[in-house]
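Recap from last week: sequence in, structure out.
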Amino acid sequence: MTAAAVLVAESESGTRDFLERHLTDDGFAVVGAGGGGEALELAERNRPDLVLVGAPLADAPALELCRRFRSGEPGRTWDRDVPLILLGQPNVHPLDRARALEHGCDDFVAKPFHYEELLARIRAVLRRATPGTRERLEAADVVVDRVTRRVTVAGVDVAMSSKEYELLARLAIDPRRVFTKEELLRDVWGFRSPARTRTLDTHASRLRRKLGARGSRPYVVNVWGVGYRLL
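Predicted structure tokens:
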């Protein structure tokens, strides 16, 4: 199972280091940001599965960062539906909790928090956010049967390696979306941080040839400088 990626946006370095260390020990792929601007850049590049937003942030109010995540910005392509958990200040008023939810946060945990409780909240939010796994993925004339791991193009079986199959299945979930190289290396190969490797490009090229030999369109499109899409 691929590790869920968590972005920790927390200005207090001790708290950030604590969360990075323990969440990594509990099987998450973790990246930390010291401020709101850095958090948005990392969200754009790494596509986290969940974001922890610690209040206060040095360069922006925490609620403002949550609002920016949800509303998006011109030219930005981060997931505006990414789950957000706000780590609020101690003795916060109930109205502030309500405002956090109104700004699009999925949960609110006050500082100082108990790590085990926060971990349970993270897992609960991820369970709610994860859609049910579809057994059959279709993109144009490509069909991926996840139960049998069978791939067909225009009804003809296509044999492929395990990683070629996993790459195709990831792209087929949302075939017109451009998946970044960092996302694909994380989700298919388990890389927890950006790496200089031709592994993805090599597998994408092989997959393109295999699908193209049976179909009539350019599958596995390389979007220069960003990543890949299927159609």
